[in-house]
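Section 3.1: Structural characterization of target chains.
Under the original work plan, the team committed to producing a structural model for every single-chain target entering the pipeline before any wet-lab resources were allocated. The record below documents one such target. The sequence was received from the expression subgroup and is listed exactly as submitted; it comprises 259 residues.
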Amino acid sequence: MTTSPLEFRELAFRYASTPIFAGLNLRIEPGQVTAVLGPNGSGKTTLLRLATRILRPAGGTVALAGRDVSVLTPREVARLVAVVPQEEPSLFPFSVEETVLMARSPWNSGFGFATALDRKRAAECLEVVEAGHLLRRDVTRLSGGERQRVLLARALAQDAPLLVLDEPTSHLDLKHQVGILRLLERLKAAEGRTVVVISHDVNLCSRFADRMVLLAAGAILADGAPAEVLRSELLSEAYGTRISVRRVDGLDWPHVFPD
């Protein structure tokens, strides 16, 4: 069996007295775009924090590339997984180039100096997300959408085989929402990267994800191809409200509507 880029085995976790997961099992398959969906409080972002050692499980195992994250150094974790956070309000007044170059540190010597190849890679990643023109700008003076694209460029420049994005389209206009998700498709096809998207946008993810994992109350309610997961009864149960799923305007993927 091919080693999973990310796997949770019998995962248990709680915040103080509030249990989040109790025996959750989830294996992310390599070379796919997997969307993790669910209502607020279902555990989506907690999974991300457990995968990157920001949080420690109360039980079970979190594994990156087959290795228990508890025995990995931060540098080793950074070489295996890159994260695009939903928000990063504490950005310092570095230039966009300097911000993206931070992603190269897991691969650099202990001196931390950026090489010409690092700068070339940073510029390439900014061009990929259509933000090359921002290279010399102060990152704190960018719009929310511009900052989001810079954070994605930073994650790409980290060159980790697993890319995890927490609400990656939340600050983007429609053009760039679609552009970012098409980029994820290209990364999967051209570079073989594995992508996990944590999102509330069920409709957008249904267009681009190979697989959807629907969480509810810290458990997996459904897991499979979008057509298997996007069913009225499952979504209504997960979100606690009546939801319809139907095809519109000749589109060949399901769209979700609140009743």
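The CA atoms of residues 32 and 194 lie 5 Å apart.
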